[in-house]
Amino acid sequence: MNSEARSLVHDFLENSAELRPDKTAVVHGEVRATYAQINSMTNELASWLLSQGVSAGDRIVILFKNSIEYIVSYYGVLKARGTAVPLNCDVKQDSLDAILREIRPKAILATGKLERILQETSSQSRKNSLMLISQPALSWRSDACTVVAWEDVVCGRTIDNPRLPISESELASIIYTSGSTGKPKGVMLSHRNITSNTHSIIQYLHLHEDDIQMVVLPFFYVMGTSLLNTHMAVAGTVVINNRFAFPACVIEQMATEHVTGFSGVPSTYAYLLHRSPLALFRDRLTALRYCSQAGGHMSRQTKEKLLQVLPPHTKLYVMYGATEAAARLTYVEPDHLTSKIDSIGRPIGGVTIRIMDEKGNELSPGVPGELVAQGPNIMLGYWMDSKSTSEVLDENGYHTGDMGFMDEEGYLFVTGRKNDLLKVGGHRISLQEIEDALMATELVMEAAVLGVDDPLLGAKLVAIAAPIEGKTDGKNVLARCQTILPKHKIPSEIRLVNALPKSANGKINRSGCRELLNSP
C-alpha cells in the first residue's frame, strides 16, 4: 500500500477498507470487526453529524473507553471535518466541567456509563450540545441539549465515504495532557501532525498488514492514538484488552491471538516483570515480533531485565516523545540498545532535535542543555492558551523541558526535567538520578522522588516506592543507595507502598504521590 499518498488521518481507515475490506481490523472480547464494517459505521456517524450541522473545526468530545465505539467515534468525527477531543472516562465532574467550558463542544459522544456524570455537569458547560449516548437511560427533558441513542445512529446502514474537502493543515484533534503536575493543556494536532508521525513510526517499526497489536494503553492518550493510527494505516489488526489490572489474562490473549506487537509505559513493563507470569509464557509468545516503550523514563534495570525475560526473537524498542509531538520524537534501534542502554536514541524520520542553552544557542556533543525539536509532527499550540504556547514554541521549535546531551554518534540522553532540578543544601540535584539509584537497588519495581520543604536545607528528598517483595524494608533500600550515591543525594526518608499513584495513561502521578506522602 502506498501510505505516502495519504494526508488525512481518516484516510488510513478508508484506504485499508478499500484494499482489505474483509480483513479483521479490531478484536474486542468476543467481537471481531472487519475494515469494511468499521468504515461503514464511521460513515453512518459522520453522516449523522453532518446532518446535525457539524462544520469544519467544531469540537466533538469523545467519552468512550477503548472499544469499537471509540474507534468509530474518532474516525467518524474526522470524516465530518470535526475536531476529535478524546477524554479520560475516569474524569472527575469538576474537571469535565472545566474542559467542556473551555472546548464548547458541538457534540458529546459518550458511553451510557457516563450518562449520570454528564447530566450532573453544569448545563451551561454543555449548552446547545448534541448528546449521542450509548444506551441512554435517564430523562433529559429539562436540559437545553438534544440527546440521541447511539444505537439509532450507528445501526447498519450502507453510506458512502463523505469525501469532504479537508486540508492537512486543519485541526484534527485536541488531546489533553494528563495534568499530573499542573492544569491539563489541550494540545492541538493537525492532520499533518498526526499523519507525518504515523508514517515515521510505521517505517522504523517495519509495520505491515500481518501485524497484530495488543492495546492496553487508552486511546485518548497520544501513544494509544498512535497505536490505532499506525495499524489502521497498514491494515493490521488491533486487539483491545482493558483488563491490564489482571496481566495474566493479557498475556494469555497475546499468545492465543498471535500478537506481534505490544506497547507500554514504564509502569506497564514493571508490572509485567514483577506481577505477571510473563516469564512462564515466554515460549508461547512465538509471534511477538517487538515490544515498544515510551511515556517517560524507564530505568536501565528494567530494560536489562526485559531483554532477559522476553523471547529471544522479540525486539525491544525504547522510544521518546510527547503529546506535543503527536507521539514520537526518537527511538533506539534494537540492535544498538545494549550499547546505548541509557539513551533515548536518535530522531525519527522528519524530526530534528538540537541541544540548546537558555539563549537559543546550539551546544556541542557532550554539553548539557535542553532538547528542542522541530518537524511536521510538532503541535499547532495549546487550545485557548497562547501564554503556555509561547513558552514552549518559538523559531527554534518545541522546547521539550527535558535536559540532556547528545553524544558524538548523535544519540540523545535525557538527564531529567528542567523543573525537576532541586536545590538541596546548596547542591543542584536531578530527581531522575535518585529514582534510577532506587531502581538500581533491585529492591523496588517503581519509584518517585519528591522535594519537600525543609527549614534548614530549603528542601529535602523524600522517596515513595513499590517494593518487588512485600517484606522489603525501607532502611535496606536506602542502605543500598548509599553504595551508589553520595550522601547529599540520599533521600532523608522513604515510604513503601503496594503501587504508586498513576494517571489513566499509566504514568506515575507525581501530584498523587505527594498527596500520598502527606496522608497519615
Describe this structure in words.
- With 520 residues, the protein is α/β, with parallel strands linked by helices.
- The chain folds into 3 domains: 32-167, Rossmann fold, CATH 3.40.50.980; 243-417, ANL, N-terminal domain (Rossmann fold, 3-Layer(aba) Sandwich), CATH 3.40.50.12780; 425-518, ANL, C-terminal domain (GMP Synthetase, Chain A, domain 3).
- It has 15 helices and 27 strands.
- α5 (115-120) links the parallel β5 and β6.
- α1 packs parallel to α8 (222-233), α2 crosses α3 (68-79) and α7 (191-205) packs across α8.
- The chain is globular.
- 47% of the residues are buried.
- Residues 1-6 have low confidence and may be disordered.
Spell out the key features of this protein.
520 residues; alpha/beta; Rossmann fold; GMP Synthetase, Chain A, domain 3; 3 domains; 9-stranded mixed beta sheet; 5-stranded parallel beta sheet; 15 helices; disordered N terminus; AMP-dep_synth/lig_dom; AMP-bd_C; ligase; AMP-bd_C_sf
